[in-house]
Design a protein that fits this description.
It is built from 6 helices and no strands. With 155 residues, the chain is mainly alpha-helical. The mean pLDDT is 88.
Length: 155
């Protein structure tokens, strides 16, 4: 192989490697930006839920006609908890296999089950087309339908 051919081949390999590294970096930057955007949107939603679940005058403006304000505020607190768990899951802070445990823990609470009974179908509709959200919603739905049974006190 001639020296110029070897130099050209090495240059091409370096250029290809640089392009691949650059493409991977752009893909990683885009993923990080999407995660930052998701966190900002979630923070806005959590802030709104915090206000709605602690301010009866504000909650009254949004309370469905067939619910009392206090009950609606409790359901919003449950939604806030579920949104926090959802964000943790979407950002990868819930390890594989942990989601059913967390869902069961959350659904062991009566207000969370009441929330899910009332608004679970809405959550299912919101998740459509998003595989991760659909999985999250299925796991929560399963936990809501099969809440853990209270353990008898050891005595």
């Amino acid at each position: 192989m001639r020296l110029t051919t070897a130099v050209l081949a090495a240059g091409a390999a370096v250029s290809l490697t640089t392009a691949l590294v650059g493409a991977a970096r752009l893909r990683q930057d885009a993923q990080h930006q999407a995660e930052r955007n998701e966190a900002v949107v979630a923070r806005n939603q959590l802030d709104w839920l915090a206000q709605m679940s602690t301010n009866a005058d504000l909650a009254k403006l949004w309370t469905p006609e067939d619910l009392g304000v206090e009950e609606y505020m409790q359901l919003l607190k449950a939604n806030q908890l579920l949104c926090t768990l959802s964000l943790r899951d979407r950002l990868g802070f819930v390890r594989d296999g942990q989601l059913p445990f967390f869902a069961s823990l959350v659904m062991s609470n009566d207000v969370c089950r009441r929330y899910w009974k009332r608004f679970g179908d809405l959550r299912v509709q919101e998740a459509e087309g998003d595989k991760r959200a659909e999985h999250f919603t299925r796991v929560l739905d399963q936990a809501a339908k099969n809440p853990p049974q209270p353990q008898p006190a050891a005595g």
